[in-house]
Amino acid sequence: MTYSMVIVFVAxxxxxxxxxxxxxxxxxxxxxxxxxxxxxxxxxxxxxxxxDGVVIATSTTDEEGKTVRSYPxxxxxxxxxxxxxxxxxGLELEGNFYMLRSHINIFEKVVKGLSEEKNRGxxxxxxxxxxxxxxxxxxxxxxxxxxxAIEPSSGKIRVMLSKPDYxxxxxxxxxxxxxxxxxxxxxxxxxxxxQGLYAPGSTFKVMTLLEYIRENPDTYNNYTYDCYGSxxxxxxxxxxxxxxxxxxxxxxxxxxxxxxxxxANIGVxxxxxxxxxxxxxLLYNSELPYDGDxxxxxxxxxxxxxxxxxxxTAIGQGNTEITPLHNALIMCAIANGGVLMxxxxxxxxxxxxxxxVKKFKSKSYGELMTSEEAQILTDYMxxxxxxxxxxxxFSGSSYDVAGKTGTAEYDNEGNCNSWFVGFxxxxxxxxxxxxxxxxxNTYGVSGxxxxxxxxxxxxxx
Length: 461
Known about the structure:
By secondary structure, the protein is of the alpha+beta class. The protein has a domain at 195-343 and 364-459: Beta-lactamase (3-Layer(aba) Sandwich). It has helices at residues 2-29, 78-81, 90-94, 96-99, 106-114, 130-140, 171-178, 192-195, 205-215, 251-256, 260-268, 272-281, 310-314, 324-335, 371-386, 391-394, 440-443, 447-459; strands at 43-44, 48-49, 55-61, 67-70, 119-120, 123-126, 145-150, 157-163, 224-227, 230-233, 236-239, 247-250, 339-341, 346-350, 356-359, 364-367, 401-409, 416-424, 432-437. It has a six-stranded mixed sheet, with no helix packed on it. Strands 8-7-19-18-17 form a five-stranded antiparallel sheet, sandwiched between helices. Helix 6 packs antiparallel against helix 18 (447-459).
């Protein structure tokens, strides 16, 4: 009995040592650990700083001598920083642990301790780029929707914007409004970039194209179709935009001109079970490798689906839904030779003197497609921007773009959202940009135009 107790005691001691050495920080750093806020008794929460050195969230002292969070750029970074009261969101949540720790030098800690001052917390340096975020914010204007831009080779999120937005400094007033009957239905706090679910519209044609190539690896280049503006497939009436006839077109031209009729024709002959497998492999119906809050995209076609479900699904309508984040991640994999790098918002943690505390490294999630498939899709998407539906926006630019436009109807009245997803410098991709502008019919601003402003800001600075 005594021998057994000794073994149990030794095992417990070993586990405690293991936990303190390897697990304690991970558990405490979990953004859902409410005990983190107890650190605020001794530490003044640190800043959130953009990758190019601009402070976008900081701690200040109000008239009553209380420490409050302040956001110098108001609404521009609302869904990046999030808020720090009535719960937390954004980096105020994900980086809370790091900003409530202090790695100032020991002498300064002693001095502050003697004077009963709080230690200055560490600062979180985000991957977000001030200039690009500002360009996206200005381009979206009063439109509702979302923008996300990611560096495909690393996974660094350079832009994360959601509209409508709010001023985190005025969260008290906003919270009061949200408790009223009028404000109770507001989605202003929702981060549409990661949580908004939308029909992908014609951006999904890239997925349909990928599946067609996989099922016809030796003959896909021989595909031609005669489009006369509309056609009925399995009882489903499919129209091209304004019933425009594209006449005889190749597979590449079908994508370039975003021909609904041609892609519906492709869709009805796909193997539904294999289509589902491919989409699951592209992280539909799955968790994403992202630490923040997000919604799961859905694709419901499978081997038991009816044939009349495919025409709409193949052109990005039907029941398929995707977040801007997920749409951008698929494009990141294409831009990165088929390999997806995990997206992240925190680049590093520094102490108040700028010394390094922790660096977050890029991680590979794995291969979503072969490098050959990624190259084919890139080549096809270049045609969209060279002579297809996006050419009027990018002609004359100092950079090349591979991408896909999209309009996604959300009712039976013809109202639609406007998408663009793509990347610049296709031979050595620099930046993936995904934009959705809600209710294009009202605002008249296209996702492609917004994306162009961001690419311009990237290359013209």
